[in-house]
Amino acid sequence: MEPSDAGAPPDLRVGQHRAGRHGRTDPGRGRRRPAHTGGGAVTGPAAADDAATAGEAAAAGDAPAAGDAATGDAATQHSPLQHISVGGRYDVHIGPGALTCLTGHLSPGRRVMVLHQPGRAALVGEVVDLVASAGGQGLTHEIPDAEAAKEVTVLAGAWAALGRAGFTRDDLVVGVGGGAATDLAGFVAASWLRGVDFINLPTSLLGIVDAAVGGKTGINTAEGKNLVGAFHEPRAVLCDPAWMASMSRPDLVSGLGEVIKCGFIADPTILELIEADPQAVCDPAAPVMTELIARSVRIKAEVVENDLTEAGIREILNYGHTFAHAIEQVEHYSWRHGDAVAVGMVFAAELAVRVGVMDPELLARHRSVLDSVGLPTSYAGADWEQLRAAMARDKKARGATLRFIVVSEAGVTQRLVGPDEALLREAFDAVSASH
Ligand SMILES: O=C(O)C(=O)C[C@@H](O)[C@H](O)[C@H](O)COP(=O)(O)O
Ligand SMILES: [Zn+2]
């Protein structure tokens, strides 16, 4: 699937291949009003179809459709362990006891290198015990917390550990920790001997709803976030929500930034669940958390099933990220990723209103839902020139032309190509002003 340029037909609809069954092929759906001609080219709808379509395709069979609130909510909350297939290529196992799904990947003699963040001794110990029970050899290597894990020196340290262990192509890397840990572990696996197996055990909300699933692996460079990496899919992703129990509230809230992103791009029920009780969704043990995780993972699974390498539809998962990555870089990764994505979505929404794609009410909804869980909606830390230069390195850019995903209504996305510099600046001014 090739990404479209100005004036080309829509190409970013989740579940487009089945859209006829749902009767949602209207290419004008979601278009609020004609795009501002001077604002850049809006191709649309570069849309995620509604969540019922997305969830249905993503579900392995036992998981409910994401948009099927009547049946989905009950099933999601009562199912102890859910298995969400990513295109039949691997499964995401979510729920109590998820670790047991590791055993199918272990065998006598198989070496398993557990790359883990600090403070995960109990879980790492369980993994090593399982490996030993299967007759394999468990090895461990600690990596730093958060984005510090994604430095080239850490990558080199992990390679050295594999080298010392005599790691072969039959062996297995396991990543334990938040999104940065699984990004790093995936890239270690992608690059060692040109590719070995890996399995992710995300221990943060952001990790399970986003980073651990989808096969984007990589590290940061001084010039920008995730600039070096590879598409390399895990063999499985396992997540027991109990592993998230020790998350700090700011880390949990940051993960909600990616959950809310899924709401805006594909599954408005997510937004409704959060708006119904913003306090409940800040509790990792709340039943609604399982629901939010499953919905977000299903969106991601269907998108990457159809477009692993971000040739088209996958760009929708990058909603808010052009501005977000710029903040992260200029702030030397002191900002949490989900916090930056929250501000990035507000920036994209300010832009979308200016090019005539989004109603101001939907922009206001961005601010209110993000604000309700304590996510930031403004940023005034760096000047526009610095951020604009950082945005030029966005992976969606083509030459000097920036591309943004914009939302025309909740769950419906379009691609905005080459917006006017003046409108970008206006969007920044709006985001940097306090509201
Ligand atoms: O999986 C994707 O595709 C995404 O864009 C999801 C993002 O939330 C995630 O942060 C991703 O790692 C960003 O990728 P990048 O290509 O913009 O570095
Ligand atoms: Zn992200």
Automatic annotation (TrEMBL):
Its EC number is 4.2.3.4. It is an enzyme of class 4 (lyase). Pfam families: DHQ_synthase (PF01761), DHQS_C (PF24621). Zn(2+) binds at E258, H321, H337. Residues 255-397 form the 3-dehydroquinate synthase C-terminal domain. It is found in: Cytoplasm. It catalyses: 7-phospho-2-dehydro-3-deoxy-D-arabino-heptonate = 3-dehydroquinate + phosphate. Residues 142-250 form the 3-dehydroquinate synthase N-terminal domain. Its main location: cytoplasm. Its cofactor is Co(2+); Zn(2+); NAD(+). Residues 43-76 have a biased composition (Low complexity). Keywords: Amino-acid biosynthesis, Aromatic amino acid biosynthesis, Cobalt, Cytoplasm, Lyase, Metal-binding, NAD, Nucleotide-binding, Zinc. Pathway: Metabolic intermediate biosynthesis; chorismate biosynthesis; chorismate from D-erythrose 4-phosphate and phosphoenolpyruvate: step 2/7. Catalyzes the conversion of 3-deoxy-D-arabino-heptulosonate 7-phosphate (DAHP) to dehydroquinate (DHQ). This is 3-dehydroquinate synthase. It comes from Ornithinimicrobium ciconiae. The gene is aroB.
